[in-house]
Amino acid sequence: MSTTTLHRVLEREGLIDDRDRQQVALQRFERKQPNELWQMDFKGPQGFNKSSGPLSILDDFSRYLVVLRHLEANNSSNVKAAMQAAFEQCGLPEYLLLDHGKPWYDSMNPWGWTELTVWILRQGIRITFSGIRHPQTQGKVERMHGALQRALRKRKGDAGQQDWLDAFREEYNQVRPHEGIGMVPPATRWQPSPRQFDPDGGEWEYPSDWKVIHLAGEGQFHYASKRWEVSGALRGQLVGLQVDGGRILVYYCNMPVREINLETGVNARLPGDPFRLLRC
User: Fold this and answer.
1) DSSP state, 279?
2) Cα 222–225–231 angle (5° rounding)?
3) Cα–chain-centroid distance for residue 244?
4) Are residues 182 and 227 in the same domain?
């Protein structure tokens, strides 16, 4: 069973204590410079007469609103197109923080990866997911959604039109003082990333002293006369093996995904999520 299914069963049977419904945030965080981390989410549908509100991407350090766009459908191809336009204009972030929603999360995959997230990883962007049912992890983009909702209530106009969203984004970035960054507009703390988007999404270059292999049809490879499973989501992809004696670290792009102990046969999933339980 997936974690989400288990949670629903426990919820239905009344086995979750009120004190355990929200994980305690261990600390607040803010990245040290622009484009270290972008937060991405869909706003809820309230006020938009659609199944969901616009796609939002916010820079963690500056609070700069990189993307605010209505999509005809919240599918992988539409999100990918919106992200590619942002990457071409603004460069690439180091990390992308996501929730457990479609089309970027798959509960049946051990890392939650989908075709979209694999495409993001091939650009050298590291992906991390928020805590389940823990919106505080994406607190900055959630607070921006609150400002957007207040603007919907106070102003006349068709929020379903992209022109309205573009005007809100311009004001949010260039004019509106932001309390979280010393009452200056986000644009004063943001600049495009020097990391450039590669439209061809070429093969990732692993260190020259690593063994580089293609994963077979079920996302596995053979080494030391044994079959080692990695992930079906990565079938046909190139992975890098960092071999250190009897220990192998398996990387996909710059993300460690498996640690293999050749002596014991243990094949452990990586990584631990560096942002989980942090409040933004």
Assistant:
1) B
2) 25
3) 30
4) no
Query: How far is C-alpha 32 from the chain's CA centre?
Result: 18
Signed CA dihedral, 228, 100, 57, 54: sign only = positive
Assign residue 127 the CATH number of its domain.
Answer: 3.30.420.10
For the chain, the average pLDDT equals 85
Q: What are the start-end ranges of the H helices in the chain?
A: 3-12, 76-90, 115-121, 139-154, 162-174
In this structure, of 159-163, 202-206, 236-240, the range with the lowest mean pLDDT score is: 159-163
Q: Is the pTM of this model over 0.85?
A: no
* Burial of 141 from C-beta contacts in 10 A (0-12 / 13-18 / 19+): buried
State the sign of the Cα–Cα–Cα–Cα dihedral 192, 193, 196, 201: negative
Pairing of strands 220-223, 37-42: unpaired
Whole-angstrom CA distances from 247 to 228, 231, 258, 259, 268 are 13, 19, 10, 7, 11
Lookup result for tokens 């079938």: 235
Q: Which string of b and e fits 88-118 if b means at least 16 CB within 10 Å?
A: eebbbbbbbbbbbeebbbbeebebbbbebbb
Parent domain of 120: 21-189
**Of 139, 156, 189, the domain-final residue:** 189
144 and 70, same structural domain?
yes
